[in-house]
Design a protein that fits this description.
- There is one protein chain.
- By secondary structure, the chain is of the alpha/beta class.
- Helix content is 43%, strand content 13%.
- It has 16 helices and 15 strands.
- Helix 6 links the parallel strand 5 and strand 6.
- The protein is globular.
Length: 409
C-alpha cells in the first residue's frame, strides 16, 4: 500500500523540506521565546493512528462511535494535568493556546464587555485585546502598562483601573514580560472589582510545572496554557480552572468554538504531562531559567539594556539601540550568524513597531537541544559580535561556531 511507504518515496518534495528544516535547526540556535522541542515520545504519539479518529464531544458523551479507546486517552490526559498542576477542572481539547484564550472570553463575557489586560507594547499578547484580533474587535479593552522607572507591572495602578472600570475579565500574563507575577495581589484586585481573574500562563506554566515559578492555579479563576512553549509537548492548548467554571468552559470549547478534538494531540499532551512530572524535566526547566538569566546578565555587561533589568523566566527583551541598530536589523544579523530571535519593542519605545528597538530571546529550545547555562558566555559573545557587524563573512564564521553548541535534536 502506497501510504505505508516512506515519506521520501511518496512525497520527496515535502520530505526534502522536512529534512531542510531539520538541518536548519541542527546548524543554528533556535532562541525564539515561543518555541521548544517536543520530545521523541510526544512526536510518536502525535504521529500515531489516533490522528485518524473523529471523536466529537467529551469522554462518555461522543457523537461518533468507536471512541472507547480515545475516551481513555483523554481521561488519562485530564488526570495527569490535574495531578501536575493541581487544578480542579481541566480541559485538554483546545486545538491551540489562542483557542483556549477565546474559550475564556466565550465562557465569561459577552461582546462589548470590558477586559483589562497588559498593553501589547508592554509585553501583552494580541489575543488580550489587539484591534487586529477578534478579542479587540468584540470586547472593550483597556490596558494597564508597566512602570516607566522599573518596567514592571504596577499593581496599585491595576487596582485603580479595575475599581474605576469594573471589567468583566482581568488578565494577567503576556508574551514579552519577563518577570514573575504577584498572583495573590491580582486575586485581591479581582475580588474587589468583582471580575474573573484569567492568567494567561502560556509562557509561565511550563516553568511552574518544573518548580521554577509559582503556580497561578490556586489564585486564578482560569489559567490558559500552551503545551509547546516551554513544556515539551505538542502544539496545543490547555484550560485549568476552578470546578465552579467547568460547565461554561466546557461548552465554550465544544460546541461553541470547536468540533472534534485532535486525539493525537491529546495523546501527545498526556505524554508531555507525564514527562513534566519527572526529575529530568525539573532539571531542564531549571536550566532554561538559568540560561536566560545568564544570557541577559551577559548582554547587560556588554552595554545593552535588558527590559526590567533581567528575567525570572525563559525569555528577555533586550534594547539593542546602543549598538546603533534597530531590533529588526539586529534580528537579521543574528539569523545570518545562526542565532534565531524575534525583533521586539520596549515599553515606551519611540521606534516604529515594524523596526523596534529590541530583540526578544528565549532559551527553551536551546536547552532542549543540549545547551547548558555554562554555554551562556559563548552565546553572548556570538550575539554581540553578530549584532555589531554587517560583514557576511564574519556572520558565516559565527554561524559555524554556534553550530557546535548543544547537540540539537
Amino acid at each position: 500500500m502506497k501510504g505505508n511507504e516512506p515519506l521520501a518515496t511518496v512525497d520527496p518534495e515535502i520530505s526534502g523540506l522536512i529534512d531542510a528544516e531539520h538541518r536548519r535547526r541542527m546548524s543554528s540556535l533556535q532562541m525564539l521565546a515561543a518555541e521548544t522541542l517536543a520530545t521523541p515520545a510526544v512526536r510518536a504519539a502525535v504521529g500515531s493512528v489516533l490522528a485518524d479518529k473523529y471523536a466529537e464531544g467529551y469522554p462518555g458523551h461522543r457523537y461518533h462511535g468507536g471512541s472507547e479507546v480515545v475516551d481513555e486517552v483523554e481521561r488519562i490526559a485530564v488526570q495527569r494535568a490535574r495531578d501536575l498542576f493541581g487544578a480542579e477542572y481541566v480541559n485538554v481539547q483546545p486545538l491551540s493556546w489562542a483557542l483556549a484564550n477565546f474559550a475564556v472570553y466565550a465562557a465569561f463575557a459577552q461582546p462589548g464587555d470590558q477586559v483589562l489586560s497588559l498593553s501589547l507594547r508592554h509585553g501583552g499578547h494580541q489575543s488580550h485585546g489587539s484591534r487586529a484580533n477578534l478579542s479587540g474587535r468584540w470586547f472593550s479593552v483597556l490596558n494597564y502598562e508597566v512602570r516607566r522607572d522599573t518596567e514592571r507591572v504596577d499593581y496599585d495602578r491595576i487596582r485603580d483601573l479595575a475599581l474605576i472600570h469594573r471589567p468583566r475579565i482581568l488578565v494577567a500574563g503576556g508574551t514579552g514580560y519577563s518577570r514573575t507575577w504577584d498572583f495573590a495581589a491580582m486575586r485581591t484586585i479581582a475580588d474587589e472589582a468583582d471580575c474573573i481573574l484569567w492568567v494567561d500562563g502560556a509562557h509561565l506554566m511550563g516553568l511552574a510545572a518544573g518548580g521554577v515559578l509559582s503556580s497561578p492555579v490556586p489564585y486564578a479563576d482560569v489559567v490558559t496554557v500552551s503545551t509547546n512553549k516551554v513544556m515539551r509537548g505538542p502544539r496545543g492548548g490547555l484550560l485549568l480552572a476552578r470546578r465552579a467554571h467547568a460547565d461554561p468552559l466546557s461548552r465554550a470549547v465544544y460546541p461553541f468554538l470547536q468540533g472534534a478534538p485532535a486525539m493525537h494531540s491529546i495523546a501527545g499532551k498526556a505524554v508531555a504531562f507525564a514527562e513534566s512530572a519527572t526529575p529530568s524535566y525539573r532539571r531542564y526547566a531549571a536550566d532554561v531559567a538559568a540560561s536566560a538569566a545568564a544570557i541577559a546578565d551577559g548582554l547587560t555587561a556588554r552595554g545593552m539594556r535588558v527590559v526590567s533589568g533581567g528575567t525570572d523566566t525563559h525569555l528577555a527583551v533586550v534594547d539593542v539601540s546602543s549598538l546603533g541598530v534597530t531590533g529588526r536589523e539586529a534580528a537579521r544579523r543574528l539569523a545570518a550568524s545562526g542565532v534565531v530571535v524575534d525583533k521586539a519593542v520596549t515599553p515606551f519605545d519611540t521606534a516604529p513597531v515594524t523596526d523596534g528597538s529590541a530583540i526578544r530571546f528565549g532559551t527553551s529550545s536551546i536547552t532542549a537541544g543540549g545547551v547548558v547555562p555554562a554555554d551562556a558566555p559563548a552565546i553572548v559573545d556570538a550575539m554581540v559580535a553578530a549584532m555589531s557587524t554587517d560583514d557576511s563573512h564574519r556572520h558565516a564564521e559565527l554561524a559555524a561556531e554556534v553550530a557546535q553548541l548543544g547537540d540539537s535534536e
